Amino acid sequence: MRVQVGLVLVFVVAAAAAACRGRSDERSYDLHGQVLSIEKTQKQLVIKHDEIKGLMPAMTMPYTVHDERLLVGVAPGDLIDATLVVETNDAYLRTVRKVGQAPLEPPPPEKPGPVARSGFELLRPGEEVPDAKFVDQDGRRRSFSGFRGSPLVMTFIYTRCPLPTFCPLMDRHFAAMQKPLEQDPALAKVHLVTVSFDPKTDTPPVLKKHARELKADLSRWTFLTGDRDEVDQFAMRFGVSIARAMNDPRDITHNLRTVIVDADGKLVKTYTGNDWSPEQVLADLREGIRGS
Ligand SMILES: [Cu+2]
Fold this sequence. Notes:
By secondary structure, the chain is of the alpha+beta class. It has helices at 2-21, 114-117, 167-183, 204-213, 228-236, 278-291, and strands at residues 27-39, 44-49, 59-64, 78-87, 90-101, 133-136, 141-143, 152-157, 191-196, 221-225, 242-244, 252-254, 257-261, 267-272. It has six helices and 14 strands. Strand 8, helix 3 (167-183) and strand 9 form a beta-alpha-beta unit.
């Protein structure tokens, strides 16, 4: 019972925080770029855009609109001027205006890297997660199999991710799970793992600083990075796709996957995108632990 009261309190506090934030923190930016693809049902378009002054370098990223009418008449290949609104916990395009058109660049040819050779296959629930080597926020060598014995909630991010609705949201969700995990004896062994797929920037000291900013309890939350190809290959098994621009490997386009892995190292569940909630993951963890 006490656990439930604690959880309710967390919700109330979170809701109050969301309510008083208001619009005062809203910033808007001019975005100019080319539409590469459109997902009408998800109100999303992938845009390869120029530098957004004061926010991020040129990169290719998915952007959301709240008003789907903005997508009417917009097609892949279109050059657009848009207004990007960034709030503390949200980011979306408020205006989209077609200003021209250009041929789409063909995608770069698949390079026969280690991923292709391994016959990459998506892990299914119940399957054992293959081992991989990492380094943690303290610079220690870690292997994935070293987490055996603890159920894991694991996600994939990079710390420079500029949009509050992507990687930073995963960080906030993990931070929000810390208290409930600590307070529920049934979840005492659950460990949080955040893997960065940008080892070039996210060195152990950067991850350590990031952890501090998130008020991460490092006894229950580990930040990992490692060899870029090994991290990519590991992440891909969960459906994470990471594309780096040829001319600038720091220009990263990625999707989001968060997973539960049981204490035996087997995949339990995968959450796609950014619309899962910490409460949902906690409920799934409880169910999994009760069921096992
Ligand atoms: Cu991101």
